[in-house]
């Protein structure tokens, strides 16, 4: 499939212009399959951005099997104000629900392996921001030349993180030009099980030895995950 970004300004909303940054990933069998959509805006909260995304996907279903991106952009320009108002109402209702309720898909876990980071400082800040925006917890782990990203959170947020990781210019190439991540491996993408402990925060950590790294996995109840995927990387 292909990915492309579109930025649109919606005027006279919330007493300010809202700049919407939309990322569409069109799978190979689009438009028979819905596109993946990511929504960002400095003027909206993360929850509002997620609501905008959900509404766009609802509209996309009405246009299945026909080109839809242009129609979706026109629709959100006309209806953003209503979506934001509705978002505030839903948000207030949700606070009355028990905190134990989870999303339909439950909590998901993702383990990624990166080959290298040339612009490490910028790359790390980008990963931290994405994790924060998408309410993901976990670890960005460095041990020697090994770089692992372990994430936990809603299934939809995990999917959105993967799109960002694959399509954004997060690093620089050998000549110093910004480039996308082309050497990432998805080691594991699975539902969190009862024996797994939940990370409460997202942290960047460095480890001196494989034993230290393994202890991080052991503490989280992820011993099997470590033994299955990490030892081959140490060779």
TrEMBL record:
Subcellular locations according to the entry: Cytoplasm; Nucleus
Superkingdom, natural source: Eukaryota
Protein's UniProt keywords contain Transmembrane helix: no
BP GO annotations: positive regulation of hypoxia-inducible factor-1alpha signaling pathway; positive regulation of protein sumoylation
Cellular component terms per the entry's GO annotation: cytoplasm; nucleus
Domain RWD: 1-83
UniProt-recorded name of the protein: RWD domain-containing protein 3
Species classification: Eukaryota, Metazoa, Chordata, Craniata, Vertebrata
């Amino acid at each position: 499939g292909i990915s492309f970004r579109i930025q649109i300004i919606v005027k006279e909303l919330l007493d300010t212009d809202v700049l919407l940054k939309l990322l569409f990933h069109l799978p190979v069998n689009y438009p028979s399959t819905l596109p993946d959509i990511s929504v960002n805006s400095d003027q909206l909260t993360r929850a509002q951005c997620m609501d905008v995304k959900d509404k766009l996907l609802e509209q996309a279903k009405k246009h299945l099997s026909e080109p839809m991106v242009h129609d979706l952009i026109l629709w959100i320009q006309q209806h953003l104000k209503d979506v934001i108002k509705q978002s505030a109402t839903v948000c207030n209702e949700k606070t009355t629900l028990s905190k134990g309720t989870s999303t339909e898909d439950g909590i998901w876990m993702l383990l990624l392996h990166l080959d290298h980071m040339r612009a490490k400082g910028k790359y790390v800040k980008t990963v931290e921001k994405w994790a924060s925006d998408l309410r993901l917890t976990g670890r960005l782990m460095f041990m020697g030349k090994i770089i692992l990203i372990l994430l936990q959170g809603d299934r939809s947020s995990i999917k959105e993180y993967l799109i960002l990781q694959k399509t954004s210019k997060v690093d620089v190439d050998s000549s110093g030009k910004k480039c996308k991540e082309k050497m990432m491996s998805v080691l594991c993408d699975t539902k969190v099980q009862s024996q797994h402990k939940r990370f409460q925060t997202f942290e960047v950590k460095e480890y001196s030895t494989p034993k230290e790294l393994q202890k991080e996995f052991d503490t989280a109840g992820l011993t099997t995950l470590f033994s299955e995927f990490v030892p081959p990387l140490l060779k």
